[in-house]
Design a protein that fits this description.
alpha/beta; Luciferase, domain 3; Rossmann fold; 6-stranded mixed beta sheet; globular
């Protein structure tokens, strides 16, 4: 596994163009089509010979629901941890079996550096009360690792003490410290209502999630409220999920950018094997080459559209969560 990890680290740091991405993606596909029992059976049910696939656009993406009912693993390794989704009441959570933590850490750090610079220069304030109750959350793992890389003593998690958080934000602003406040929607709105203040050295990253705590609002409404309360020009967002080991980031306006080893494709919402052109909305499919030991080709339940520069937007979710094709193995 050591060799595979170092190989991925080289890939993530050295993509120079589309051809390199294509070769790495097709190589990963062929290996997972052989060594991932769940994905292999899915391809068999579709009557697809992996050797006939020569273009990224033709790769079949595995419905994300499979992570709810199967151990999706490539190879024979043993998991070092299991990431688990929160799910809704009464629903089956997704489980992502992680065979090597270092791949997630490598992907996270290099992706963060691409969009925000060196993590050691930041103070991280994680306002994630609902996630702290879930030790197997990939988001908690992500923030734990970023906090461990931060050199600032105020970096840490904040549960429900908004007064303490506001006081520390004030101190950080006065010192000119570069700060990232990352939080779930309902907690950020609580902070905005109780402690509005101008933030000049702090960026806010929302991860979504009302969890029944508040009336659902649109992302535009959320960002407008946060921009007004904190007198900031934009609100950032993170796009990640339990089943992925990479994150896309938006630095404002709801436009996400992915690291080179993570690619977004848009599928026809009525035909999961037909691709939509740039600018047309449909289902989001994700290539995540950090998923070397699970499945790198995930058909999500999200709706979105992709732009010509490979940036993308997330428009919502499918009303019917059980997407076509997912019953092949259930």
């Amino acid at each position: 596994m050591e060799a595979s990890f170092l190989k991925l680290a080289t890939l993530t740091g050295c993509f120079l163009g589309k051809e390199a991405l294509k070769l790495a993606t097709l190589k990963t596909f062929l290996r997972q089509a052989r060594e991932n029992i769940v994905y292999k059976e899915y391809l068999n049910q579709l009557n697809i010979n992996s050797k006939d696939i020569s273009a990224i656009e033709d790769i079949p993406f595995m419905p994300i629901e499979f992570f709810k009912h199967h151990r999706v693993v490539t190879g024979q390794g043993l998991e070092t941890r299991i990431f688990e989704s929160s799910g809704t009441t009464g629903s089956q959570p997704s489980k992502h079996f992680i065979l090597d933590d270092r791949i997630y850490e490598e992907s996270l750090v290099q992706g963060f550096q691409k969009f925000f610079g060196d993590p050691s220069e930041w103070c991280f304030l994680a306002l994630l009360p609902s996630y702290l109750e879930r030790p197997n959350s990939s988001l908690i793992f992500m923030m734990n690792h970023l906090i461990s890389l931060s050199s600032h003593p105020l970096s840490g998690f904040y549960l429900n003490n908004l007064d303490e958080l506001a006081a520390k934000l004030t101190l950080l602003e006065e010192s000119g410290q570069k700060t990232m406040l990352i939080g779930v929607t309902f907690a950020l709105l609580d902070l905005a209502e109780q402690h509005p203040m101008p933030l000049k050295n702090t960026i806010i990253v929302e991860t979504g999630g009302m969890k029944g705590r508040r009336h659902e609002i649109t992302r535009d409404e959320l960002h407008a409220l946060l921009k007004s309360a904190f007198q900031i020009e934009s609100v950032c967002s993170e796009y990640g999920m339990t089943e992925l080991l990479s994150q896309a980031w938006s630095t404002g306006n709801g436009i996400y950018h992915s690291p080179p080893w993570m690619k977004i494709l848009i599928r026809d919402p009525y035909d999961p094997f037909r691709r939509m052109p740039d600018g047309k909305s449909g289902g989001i499919d994700v290539i995540d080459l950090a998923n070397q030991f699970s499945c790198s080709f995930i058909q999500t339940q999200d709706l979105g559209l992709k732009h010509r520069d490979d940036s993308f937007e997330v428009l919502g979710r499918f009303d019917n969560s059980e997407l076509r094709g997912c019953n092949l193995l259930l």
